[in-house]
Specification:
Order of helices and strands: HEEEEEEEHEEEEEEEEEH
Shape: elongated
Number of strands: 16
Oligomer: single chain
Number of helices: 3
CATH architecture of the largest domain: Beta Barrel
Length: 290
């Protein structure tokens, strides 16, 4: 009887393990190593790359800059539909569709046939399968924090910049008159207590969207409730990225002007209004209107 009970328990554990290994990936994972065909050894790449899985679309995140003042990465939409568990089996009519397997709450394996990522042939050889191993270890604090802010899961700050803001445009002098000109790209900011995450995109287009994360300080004037000083990015270093500092003038609780100066001493005057992120990014990060 004990042997039967033991066999049943072992079977249940095996089934539970198999079920856990077959779940759909969700959230942020970091690339740890690359696997190749024809017996070539696995390789730990020097680049920093993440995958973000959602119920909307999957995204590859490529880190472009990591300095004391700036943390910048670019989004690449992998597919027009979410990734689901497939197992390590042929996918699609030609068998070269992306395979998702080895999944659990901390791991996911992505196996894809490379016909689209030229460049470094040693790292991503063309016309063969490449296996990417991801897990939840070794996250940079800046990546984890900025994703948390885009998901609107961070603790909201106590200052007036709490929430999400969209750049309406920049003021310029045209024939002696102050004129508001439209922003060349869609720009959004989500503020924390002492940091800010910026999204640069074109409407609902996820492909090519750029995220900038950096420190921020908000300093209200004691004698003027509608004026405050601000700084973003800390001090400017040789390769640390340009810091921004200036003055905020509140027009209402839902709009403000930010006045700052570029390194060439050009004065920049911007109008910001409270807004939600574009719908595609709300779906990607699982948020409602901030």
């Amino acid at each position: 009887m004990k042997r039967i009970i033991t066999l049943v328990a072992a079977g249940l554990l095996t089934a539970a393990s198999a079920f856990a290994q077959g779940e759909n990936p969700h959230g942020l994972y970091k690339l740890q190593r690359l696997g190749y065909e024809n017996g070539r050894p696995d390789h730990v790449p020097e680049l920093t790359q993440y995958k973000y899985f959602s119920d909307f679309v999957p995204v590859t995140i490529m880190l472009m800059r990591n300095t004391p003042n700036e943390y910048i990465y670019v989004l690449k939409q992998d597919e027009p539909h979410p990734y689901v568990f497939t197992g390590d089996v042929a996918v699609g009519e030609d068998g070269r569709g992306t395979r998702i397997y080895g999944t659990d709450s901390n791991h996911v394996i992505v196996k894809w046939y490379n016909t689209i990522r030229p460049g470094n042939g040693d790292l991503f050889p063309m016309n063969q399968f490449i296996t990417e191993y991801y897990d939840r270890n070794g996250f940079e604090q800046q990546m984890q924090r900025s994703i948390e802010m885009l998901q609107q899961k961070h603790k909201q700050p106590n200052h007036r910049l709490a929430g999400c803001w969209r750049l309406v445009g920049t003021y310029k002098q045209v024939e002696g008159e102050r004129v508001l000109t439209s922003a060349p790209a869609d720009t959004y900011k989500i503020y924390g207590d002492k940091d800010v995450t910026c999204l640069f995109c074109r409407g609902d287009q996820i492909m090519g969207a750029t995220i900038l994360y950096r420190s921020m300080e908000y300093k209200p004037e004691k004698n003027d409730a509608d004026t405050a000083g601000f700084s973003e990015g800390g001090s400017t270093g040789n390769d640390g990225g340009a810091a921004t500092a200036g003055v905020i003038k509140w027009k209402s609780n839902d709009s403000f002007e930010a006045i700052s100066m570029r390194p060439d001493e050009t004065v920049v005057e911007e109008l910001w209004k409270r807004a939600a992120l574009p719908e595609a990014f709300q779906k990607l990060f699982g948020t409602q209107k901030p």
